[in-house]
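Translate sequence into structure tokens.
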Amino acid sequence: MTKSELIEQLATKLPHLLRGDVELAINSLIHSMTHNLATGGRIEIRGFGGFSITRRAARMGHNPKTGERVSLPSRYATHFKPGLDLRERVNHSREIYPNIKDL
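Result follows.
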């Protein structure tokens, strides 16, 4: 699902809200979450999961085209850990819809 699909789905489910207001709410939510993670915070949405930042150490990698070894600097990466409710719903949906294409 893309951000525009999410906005459209919420605008349809909440017809009393203007589409522009739904878009503003989604954009504000994403901005707040991004800012919180960028400043070292953690995000936890009960039943859905949690987002945190992890630091990846510097390492040696390689250029896949040339095979040349390159030094990769340390960096921060976003980590998502799904909540129990999300894991159970996803696993249960695989039982209900067995023909869903494997990811």
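Note: The two ends are 15 Å apart (CA to CA).
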